[in-house]
């Protein structure tokens, strides 16, 4: 009996020590919850959530300060993923209309550009190339479609162009949505 | 050895009416070259080719018009001589019906060849890298339908050594007979191509898998092999059972080896190539010819004269059908590929590409109208026939619920979209459609994730840069200030200046002593 108690007590102490040591030795730096939330956000960096970018919004959600329905580019899918991650109830998007906008990229009408560099300073992901008094251009692959470059442009030569599907990015429609379907017998 | 092989079989499969006889009555006929050829830049798996010609350029037959833009990509050559009249979006053969970038060539009617590279008849003495380069130059892709760049597939360095070359001559899909006719008529070229491929990958043996509904083709191959005195190559006749021509299924049938999930055939020491691809390799290596034409089957009761035709790549489907005898009144739908794995086209003004093996102009009863989908009754029929040994009803269940993680847990990506499950499903569920839907959704999500990761990295880099610039600015200011202070220290010899400075210090000290005053002492 005594040996049993001693053994169990000994084991408990041992595990306690191991746990205590691991907690110090393998401590995770940073804020893992905010990281996980940030990984779900679309990184558009548009600020439509009211924060200065995706990361600050992620941090606010991690501390419970912000609702999970404020990201229009992420839309419903992101809201549901956030609800799942944080164990909260899904809520209606704050701005449904903004969420339904098609994905677009900025496009500079090069003939009208005066080379003022204001848009370059506004772009959160450095997707605009150009120099003072020289025509600017948007690197389409890197543009997140945040629209932050639109207001600073003094000559309003930046437009948003919807990104259409190509055969390579096209998605098969959900079968129940299509009335006729062919090929497969 | 051959006897033991008979014991191997793959799981599932379905017996289908093969409908091959309709299109094998006549020899392959070469169709004229149309006035306009439309060459999609994306006819293969991988990145689109990059045009190397401009609108207005004159091109010769066989001239490179678009260059492989990446390791996994394929070059495109002009199928005839003429003028480039357009580079831009055109209708392409794709289930979406969307347009894609194409080079349009207007034929000059001369069909004049460009200078072709030297034949490499002594290929056995040449470095394999040179041979691969030739195959890459020729723009050869898998002609069985998948269109994976062949030069990439035959580069097996860094993988397990290949001991067996499997030649896919099964042609298991109903209606399609282009490989059958190619073997009957060009068996010698097939054997030449096999020789090159075997040399390339160092395969000790080659097994040609052919279904038992093609006895003429099998005989032609045996003949060609005996005249070539090729001993390491064997024609293996397999029972007709769809989809015996699936890569993993055929390897299993011929060698008994099981290609692992997510793995390549190279993982079990096998390289698999289609017969038509072998012929294209022979053309490129022995005759210096790029891939600019192919044999396609035009069949179904919707055409007057079903048959096989050698067509220039880029010929429009409506031209091919008109030239081959035209539509019959029975036509209801045009399918690109076969009835099991093909897809319906919205119209026929799309070009034949390297991947096109069949135009099936189907009559009403050849593609039965799809009855309404009913709920799954969990009968398990789909499980019995699935050659990939999946649980189709489970994948369907999760795909339908948009639960793509679960669908992947059930190995969605091992599905070869053969359509066996949908074929037997008593509830008429368009199962493959659900799998395609789920696959393209998952790819889209992956692209989104990559894009957002890139944006995050770039945003973080920008924030870090702005911070660094700010720090540097502050550091510069501090330096300047210090330099100034030093200077004033040096000039302390001047009694007048020293007096002023002492006064300033006193004032500053006084200010500092007054707590409510928020102004910082020692300011400018
Ligand atoms: S389509 Fe996919 S799930 Fe259905 S039988 Fe073929 S491999 Fe199996
Ligand atoms: S065959 Fe159709 S009804 Fe039967 S289990 Fe499979 S999906 Fe369900």
Give an account of the 3D structure.
The complex is a heterodimer of chains A (185) and B (524). Chain A is mainly alpha-helical. Among the domains of chain A are: 32-98, Electron transport complex subunit B, putative Fe-S cluster (3-methyladenine DNA Glycosylase II, Chain A, domain 3); 102-163, Alpha-Beta Plaits, CATH 3.30.70. Chain A is built from 6 helices and 4 strands, in the order H-H-H-H-H-E-H-E-E-E. Chain A has helices at residues 2-25, 32-40, 54-62, 75-86, 96-99, 118-122, and strands at 104-108, 128-129, 137-138, 158-162. Chain A has a two-stranded antiparallel ribbon. In chain A, a hairpin with a 7-residue loop joins strand 2 and strand 3. Chain A is elongated and about 90 Å long. The relative contact order of chain A is 0.11. With 524 residues, chain B is an alpha/beta fold. In chain B, the strands form 4 sheets. Chain B has a 6-stranded mixed beta sheet, with helices on both faces. In chain B, helix 4 packs parallel to helix 5 and helix 10 (392-400) packs across helix 13. The longest helix of chain B has 60 residues, at 431-490. The termini of chain B are far apart. Classes of the chains: A mainly alpha (185), B alpha/beta (524). The A-B interface holds A 38, 41-45, 53-55, 124-127, 142, 144, 165-176, 178, 180-185 and B 42, 92, 94-96, 98, 100, 333, 335, 339-344, 367-368, 370, 373, 400, 419, 422-423, 430-434, 436-437, 439-441, 444, 447-448, 451-456, 458-459, 461-462. Residues 376-382, 392-393, 396, 424-427, 429 of chain B line the site of one iron/sulfur cluster.
